[in-house]
Design brief:
The protein is an alpha/beta fold and 265 residues long. The protein contains nine helices and eight strands. The chain folds into three domains: 8-79, Ubiquitin-like (UB roll) (Roll), CATH 3.10.20; 85-177, Translation initiation factor 3 (IF-3), C-terminal domain (Translation Initiation Factor IF3), CATH 3.30.110; 213-259. It has a four-stranded mixed β-sheet with strand order 2-1-4-3.
Length: 265
């Protein structure tokens, strides 16, 4: 079917509503007069609205008009994105390895801008447990949250359960921004070191800070000294007793041979 408008002598109406080349309304004009006006301007008379009564015709350069229309259509085709619906099939008893491989492919499709139809195929008595298929669909949707979102929620379709995922540009941009952000560097050791100073004063609180008077401090120190002296004296007494015991034992050993010699005689 030819969709091109009628031009010049192909126009059949007796009179037309004429529009000038600059878009100005000229009004209802007999067809021969409109054609003469177009020829004087070396342009074409183009029927732009054949359904109107009378038809609307415009004086224009039809060759230029066709070229510009083709360019506009070409630009619109460039800007339009060709969305393809991919399909990925799962089974209710799918293994962990297969699940990871298929879900990774689903994420790739969504990253490329495609929609993905997820299908759970039931067999035999598996139809009695649709919750197994719903669980798998929920896991897939959760695994691809950074690149896609659920457009059509799970529903039963005969022996299958289906769900449609679509690309999520905002989630993809957020995930990309998160990956490109520099990781926070750990705190340097210098910031963790204690400032250099008199650590003994900082570690040991003063008597004044604890609310102890000088007299109480001296009494406490003298008591501690007496305890240390007592411990030393007790230790020395124990050592002396051990030495005396060892000397007595040596004396007994020395006397033992003499007794034996006397018995032999």
């Amino acid at each position: 079917m030819n969709n091109e408008p009628r031009i010049n002598d192909r126009i059949r109406a007796r009179e037309v509503r004429l529009v000038g080349p600059d878009g100005a309304q000229i009004g209802i004009t007999p067809l021969p007069k409109a054609l003469d006006m177009a020829r004087e301007l070396e342009l074409d008379l183009v029927e732009v609205a054949d359904k109107a009564n009378p038809p609307v015709c415009r004086i224009m350069d039809y060759g230029k008009y066709k070229y510009e229309a083709a360019q506009r259509a070409k630009e619109s085709r460039k800007k339009s994105t060709n969305v393809v619906v991919k399909e990925m099939k799962y089974r209710p008893k799918i293994g962990a390895g297969d699940f990871g491989t298929k879900t990774k492919k689903v994420a790739e499709f969504l990253g490329e801008g495609h929609k993905v139809k997820i299908t759970i195929m039931f067999r035999g008595r598996e139809m009695q447990h649709p919750e197994l298929g719903r669980k798998i669909l929920d896991q897939v949707a959760e695994a691809v949250t950074e690149v896609g979102k659920v457009e059509i929620y799970p529903r039963l379709d005969g022996r299958n359960m289906t769900m449609v995922l679509g690309p999520d540009k905002k989630a993809q941009a957020a995930a990309e921004k998160k990956r490109s952000a520099p990781e926070e560097s750990p705190a340097s050791p210098s910031t963790l070191e204690t400032p250099v100073g008199d650590t003994s004063e900082a570690a040991a609180p003063t008597a004044e800070a604890l609310g102890v008077t000088p007299l109480e401090t001296e009494a406490t120190e003298s008591a501690a000294a007496e305890i240390e002296v007592t411990e030393i004296e007790v230790t020395e007494i124990e050592v002396t007793e051990i030495e005396v015991t060892e000397i007595e034992a040596e004396a007994v050993i020395a006397e033992a041979p003499e007794d034996s010699d006397t018995s032999e005689a």
